[in-house]
Amino acid sequence: MIITMERLATEEQIQAVVAHVAETRNKTELIRGVERTVIGVVGDHITEDLRSGLEGMVGVEAVVRITKS
User: Fold this and answer.
1) Cα Rg for the chain, rounded, in angstroms?
2) CB–CB of 13/58 below 8 Å?
3) Domain 2-64 class?
4) What is the model's pTM?
């Protein structure tokens, strides 16, 4: 799963997303660009509920699921 943060997302918003993912026993990898931060999510517990929950978080621009379980 790939999470694209909004251009002006704060560090607090980014860390809230990372913490939410960690609660689901998945791992994150942050990629910090000049204008945006992208968060890669890997693990065996990536669900539709996780995706929809992330989409509703402040600072999240888009959530794209890469594979289906």
Assistant:
1) 11
2) yes
3) alpha beta
4) 0.92
